Amino acid sequence: MTSLSRIGGTIAAAIILSSAIPQAHAGPATKVYMPVTTMEEANALKPGDRVAIETCGVITLMTVDSDRTILHSFKCPQIHRVFHVMSAGEAGKTHAAGSYVLVDDDGEEGHLAVLK
Questions:
Q1: How far apart are CA 85 and CA 72, in angstroms?
Q2: Three-state SS across 10-25?
């Protein structure tokens, strides 16, 4: 038996063994934060949903409360700015109709994402 046929036999055995061993995955499925960009997506948030809010480079993780106040406003606990949901045609800003945009009095925008 040549060394080439031994190597080929070893590779074949490794392939057969690796396909015969069941794959195991520990823990729950991976979840990621997905951006909320429309009012329709924002209105679909339910109390208990986990969300992340980015404001001026600061990310705040929180759970949607029973009043779903995130649909109206958000006060960043780190920078102490109050952000409100921008209405269509608000002065100085242009966004598509139906967009979900958080903005403060200085025009700084915040961004919302939901854990899915």
A1: 5
A2: HHHHHHHHHHHCCCCC
- The CATH number for 33-115, chosen from 3.10.350, 3.10.330, 1.10.150, 3.40.50, is 3.10.330
How many whole angstroms separate alpha carbon 45 and alpha carbon 68?
A: 8
Query: How many helices (H) and strands (E) in the chain?
Result: 2, 7
- Express each pLDDT in 13-40 by its tens digit: 555 545 555 555 566 778 899 999 999 9
Cα separation, 104 vs 28, in Å, equals 37
Query: Quick check: 52 and 59 in contact, CB under 8 A?
Result: yes
What is the number of other CB atoms lying within 10 angstroms of the CB of residue 100?
Answer: 21
Q: What is the pLDDT of residues 54-113, one digit of tens each?
A: 998 899 999 999 999 998 999 999 899 999 988 665 555 667 777 888 889 888 889 999
